[in-house]
Amino acid sequence: MTASATVDDQLAHYSSLLGPELESYLPRCEPDRYLYRLLALSVGRRGKALRPSICLATCAAFGADPRLCLGPAVALELVHDAFLVHDDIQDGSERRRGHATLHADVGVPLAINAGDALATLSFRPLLDAESRLGSSLTARILREFHHTILTTIEGQAIELGWRKDNVCDLGLDDYLGMVLRKTCCYTTIHPLRVGALVGTRGRADLAALTRFGFFLGAAFQIQDDVLDLTSGPGGYGKDTDGDLYEGKRSVPLVHLLAQCRPVERHALVQFLRLDRWQRTVEAVDWVHALLVAHGSIEFARNVATGISRAATESFDCAFRAVPPTRDLEFLAALVDFVVERSS
Amino acid sequence: MTASATVDDQLAHYSSLLGPELESYLPRCEPDRYLYRLLALSVGRRGKALRPSICLATCAAFGADPRLCLGPAVALELVHDAFLVHDDIQDGSERRRGHATLHADVGVPLAINAGDALATLSFRPLLDAESRLGSSLTARILREFHHTILTTIEGQAIELGWRKDNVCDLGLDDYLGMVLRKTCCYTTIHPLRVGALVGTRGRADLAALTRFGFFLGAAFQIQDDVLDLTSGPGGYGKDTDGDLYEGKRSVPLVHLLAQCRPVERHALVQFLRLDRWQRTVEAVDWVHALLVAHGSIEFARNVATGISRAATESFDCAFRAVPPTRDLEFLAALVDFVVERSS
After folding, report:
1. Of A77, A166, A233, A290, whose CA is between 20 and 30 Å from B185?
2. pLDDT (tens digit per residue) in A108-146
3. Which ranges of chain B would DSSP assign to H, the alpha helix?
4. Which of the residues B29, B34, B190 would you substitute to probe the A interface, choosing the one with the greatest number of A C-beta atoms within 10 Å?
5. What's the ipTM?
6. For the domain that residue A137 is a member of, what is the CATH number?
């Protein structure tokens, strides 16, 4: 079985575990039209459920019943949806997962509120976890989850701040520091740590898992940067060249800003200073062509591949003593999956 | 000492207890410019700290050291600030507490993110409360707090939905159902319940406190509706006639819609259909004059007074067996204070 088939297969398995539990945390009551229907809409259009799957897989790989980890897994999916709803408002994105974004559909005020509700609801499965996990482990996981959310918000602040102030002198280290906070912490590091905490009742080597999570998450995000520029319309479910319209400091853009000629850089900085609605198709196409000409997309692909190699090494260290299972195979296969995926 | 002097005096006392603890929950680290400085700015301009004060006073009135309740009190102030930041974006408000609102200052994306951070941070003092309160009471308070936040978000959804769909056939019962969720739950009911839970280690009559909290909170909100229409510029710290610019379904507006002549109602419904930026000073002045002419502001004052009488009765029931203290006197004086205050 190829890495990709293993991943798809296991993702479907974890999703089938997750689905009913996730459903049970979406209130079906009033106010329906202005709140809970909007949440069901957002969560119902969920993607791969990557974060909960990493959590369930890690728990199972360490030998425990993955259902023990359903609370933390649901919490992750709900807070991910909360982030997406607010991200889309902040970025002015019109499309997500092939549909209109929530604020494009119901307006910014109700969408901000729906995001707040999802973030609040994300705590509930953890408050309920005590009967499965005991009070001490539950309190520990609540603290880790809380720290994870706040770290993600810090990463988001940095990224939004760079765009607001049109910061253009960024290196790969700045990018990785931001992505560690914004993406890795909740996408990979927290799911791995919590899966291990539950799977081993607190005896896992969390430092090694954190390193693996950082490399895996960074490779994932950089591939995301690449996919934004290389997926045709519709294929990726988001706006094409969406990051360029949003002025996102992606690895390709950071590379281009450092590599292009002064006259190009001057025009690029002007482009980045514009508001999203001022960016024309022609200007975006020009930046895209510049990224191709300067090898910036290729550079990002190479960075992702290099980081994925570091992920493989740290995987071996983190899961050294763990016997082979489908769950472990899934976690190993994720490394290739995140840099080879096309959506 | 008058009711108002008692309230002011005790508010200052509770604020002095709250201040250092609140400060200790505001991170002083990076990202400073794009996140933590913005939080300090919002929280630093805090108002009366009414919610934490009710919490501390109730705990003390039931005979416990109010400092036991500092965690829940800080949580309330932080989540209140989180609500205000997102409310101001949703309402398009430019002024708050005599200053530019956060989004007017730094833009909507960073302000949404700062609100998310405040909401997240509000859980931290409760996660830390175990050493003071024990694990069982802490878990109980966490669940009450979580329920309170979600209920507030439900109330906000209803109010935003009414404005979005220009719902004009509302009665006082609809208004009170919304205000119970949006205002009372976190402003009065939760502070009273948690103060009592901590103060009595769980033996208080929470149902009686909930009734008192509902009447007190509703009187507070209706007086807020009145103040919005009667405070001169600057006096109230917000935009003058801000609720009219926002199209808020206040008690005076609900009364006016039911009482005015058909031709006036038709024009009023047209006015309410406009976006905020389309509402002119002249049109707002016209609605204001209509409210005066139909006695709608006077009607709201009378409703607030009537509800405050019910609050006094339920206060006597809730605190029947509690010995007289400055803290109890403060809680009793709040009833007159909320309907007599001018800011």
Report:
1. A77
2. 999 999 999 999 999 999 999 999 999 999 999 999 999
3. 3-24, 37-44, 50-61, 70-91, 102-106, 108-121, 124-127, 130-133, 135-164, 172-179, 190-200, 206-230, 242-246, 251-259, 262-273, 281-293, 296-318, 326-340
4. B34
5. 0.96
6. 1.10.600.10
